[in-house]
Amino acid sequence: MILDLKSLEETAELLKVIAHPVRLCIVRGLWRNGCCNVTHMQNCLDVPQSTVSQHLGKLRQAGIIEGERNGLEITYKLTDERVKAILCCLFSDTKDDSRKEGND
Asked: For residue 76, which phi and psi values (nearest 5 degrees)?
């Protein structure tokens, strides 16, 4: 029972991290597009770069995304398979349609 509780607590923390609208939009965009840089995210979200960076920090800290530096640019990608499965459940009916429309 204690192992189940620990697993449930970890899952609840994961859900808390992605529950914010900006972070959910970021992970959804990464799930749909594969990878992205901060400038593109900022333009899609229409929020300041500092806001995007704060949310990226929380997602990185939770191990949901990883960044790869290429010169001055960092490209982020979604790495947590549990989050990918959650996004598939939440947005599977819109994943292919949004790619055709070019939306994030």
From this structure: -105, 150
Contact 30, 77 (CB under 8 A): yes
CA 1, chain centre distance (Å): 31
Q: Give the residue from 5, 2, 47, 6 showing the smallest Cα distance to 25.
A: 47
CA distance readout (Å), 69 to 22, 38, 100, 104: 22, 12, 29, 22
What secondary structure letter does DSSP report for 48? -
Q: Return the amino acid letter for 78.
A: L
Q: How far apart are CA 56 and CA 67, in angstroms?
A: 9
d(CA 29, CA 77): 10
**Tens digits of residue pLDDT in 23-60:** 999 999 999 999 999 999 999 999 999 999 999 999 99
